[in-house]
Design brief:
Layout: H1 2-22, E1 31-36, H2 54-71, E2 75-81, H3 97-100, H4 113-123, E3 127-132, H5 151-154, E4 159-162, E5 165-168, H6 173-189, E6 194-197, H7 213-219, H8 226-248, E7 253-256, H9 279-282, H10 287-292, E8 298-299, H11 314-323, E9 329-335, H12 351-360, E10 367-371, H13 373-377, H14 383-391, E11 413-416, E12 425-426, E13 430-434, H15 439-444, E14 447-454, E15 467-471, E16 478-480, E17 489-497, E18 510-514
């Protein structure tokens, strides 16, 4: 009996040691995104403007961001063009019916939702990526819902009907030119952090063939077959957009969220160990090529599947995308909406937390994006709690993209208290600092990271638990630490960050004792 107790103790000791090796500390840099879907009012606004006014819409959006901030989210993918319409004022397209209840009708009282959203996200240290649906033109064929000035009426020759919806015909050069122009309007006119596409390129296949054979006869003679021609049409759009975005604003990221399977190994030796629908064949989206060519800065595959799911196993797909990153970022799309499904894999309420653990152990994966906002804020299967109190307990900076910019800004100077301290004591933990003396360096600064340490703690800027504020406001060179406790001594350090989140060397260490 004693021997059995001893063996059990040894087994427990070894198991705990292995577990400790598997549990990685929270990273200082991680992309923690969420999709905020506006189509069909999935996430926001909960009701279009015919029901509630603009002030209530804005209040609702602020509440959504506040909840995500508490959760630890640091990026939002806001759907600004759900169906060839606009959630922004400076647009060549009509206002979205999902915003105001009627296509072409402006918000009342008037406001610019995208400008508002960007400002609110940046206040909270969140990036905002403008999410576009490039080809979808209508969600149905109900004429009464389509404004007489909608482009499907004024340029009807640009569209085909498929599966009860209208789509741009990607094979027309004038269509590609138009879509690039629409997106570049936003890049030039708004302070976005990224341009984001989801998985909708050519429509998901139905029973009928795509009605583009005439366009293929006109424009596809140089390609061997219609499938390669369709893929080339999408390639041309992605490549042109990539060049246009980075030429206009070098810091704006361009990312794609493709279907979770590029190609299956049975179709292509370069493919993944899976057996499901492929984005390459079904949607004519060659996402691997876009990453390999450097046309996108990040790929965000929608791996909405559980571990060991035979047609599309989460672990196999994640490993495949990470092995095909070609030096760019991989953010894994995770389907929070599936968390309560009574289906294979999803009955295990640890499915999503285990997926986060798995991706964190892969050095070629830099984060997650969750679909969708409402599923996360509703805390399905307790997943929001897992993020807020465990995985995202401490803040994280967005990962830097060194191929866009690898030069860090200059460090702030003269970190101190606004008032002269008596023997280092103060009633509060107020901080102030100065911008670097070099004007050129000042121009690169976008914001600040503020760190707090205990009296005798080592100054370790790689440990995110010491981050108490990430600011995207270069002009505010002061901070009031409202969480500081009386009777304690603290050490503070401030760094600068640029638009790409490159971080400077630290300021001087400032110590203060709180009465």
């Amino acid at each position: 009996m004693a021997k059995n107790y001893f063996l059990s103790f040894v087994f427990l000791f070894i198991s705990c040691g292995l577990l400790a090796q598997q549990v990685k500390p929270n990273p200082k840099r991680e992309f923690r995104g969420v999709w905020i879907a506006t189509v069909q009012n999935i996430d926001w606004p909960s009701k279009p403007g015919v029901v509630v006014n603009s002030e209530l819409q804005k209040h609702e959006f602020v509440q959504i961001l506040d909840q995500h901030q508490k959760t630890g989210i640091n990026a939002v993918m806001l759907q600004v063009r759900p169906s060839t319409d606009a959630f922004y004022a400076k647009s060549r397209e009509l206002w979205s019916m999902f915003l105001t209840g009627e296509q072409g009708v402006a918000p009342n009282p008037f406001y610019d939702p995208l400008n508002f959203a960007i400002e609110e996200a940046h206040k909270r240290g969140m990036e905002l990526h403008a999410w576009f649906n490039p080809y979808r033109a209508t969600n149905n064929l109900i004429d009464s819902l389509i404004n007489k000035d909608h482009i499907t009426r004024t340029k009807s020759e640009w569209f085909f009907t498929y599966g009860g919806k209208k789509y741009f015909n990607p094979g027309l050069p004038e269509v590609r030119e138009y879509i690039v122009g629409v997106i570049m309007d936003v890049v030039r006119n708004y302070d976005i952090d990224g341009v984001h596409f989801d998985d909708y390129f050519y429509p998901y296949p139905g029973k009928e063939p795509l009605p583009d054979s005439v366009t293929y006869a006109l424009y596809g003679s140089e390609l061997a077959n219609i499938e390669d021609w369709r893929r080339n049409n999408v390639d041309l759009l992605i490549h042109t957009l990539s060049d246009s975005i980075h030429a206009a604003k070098s810091y704006v990221k361009f990312g794609i969220s493709p279907f979770g399977i590029w190609r299956n190994k049975a179709q292509d030796p370069e493919g993944s160990e899976s057996n499901g629908l492929s984005g390459y064949s079904a949607l004519y989206a060659d996402a691997r090529k876009w990453v390999k060519k450097g046309w996108v800065d990040y790929v965000n595959p929608q791996v909405y599947f559980p571990f060991n799911y035979k047609p599309a196993p989460y672990e196999k797909l994640l490993d495949w995308w990470s092995a095909n990153a070609f030096g760019k970022h991989v953010y894994v799309g995770q389907g929070v909406y599936r968390a309560m499904e009574d289906r294979e894999g999803w009955r295990d309420k640890q499915q999503l937390p285990n997926q986060v653990r798995y991706l964190r152990n892969n050095p070629n994966v830099q984060g997650s994006v969750f679909f969708s906002s409402r599923s996360l804020t509703n805390n399905l299967a307790g997943f929001r709690d897992s993020l807020q109190h465990d995985f995202y307990r401490y803040p994280a900076l967005q990962p830097a993209m060194q191929w866009l910019d690898d030069v860090p800004p200059a460090a702030p100077a003269k970190l101190s208290h606004p008032k002269k301290l008596l023997f280092g004591w103060s009633r509060n933990a107020k901080l102030q600092w100065e911008l670097p003396a070099d004007p050129a360096a000042e121009g690169e600064i976008y914001g600040y990271v503020i760190y707090r340490f205990g009296k005798n703690e080592e100054i370790d800027l790689q440990d995110p638990k010491h981050i108490i504020k990430v600011s995207f406001d270069k002009h505010t060179t002061s901070f009031y630490d409202e969480t500081a406790s009386g009777g304690k001594r603290y050490q503070y350090v401030v760094t600068t960050i640029d638009r790409m989140k490159n971080e400077s060397l630290p300021s001087n260490v400032f110590s203060v004792r709180i009465w």
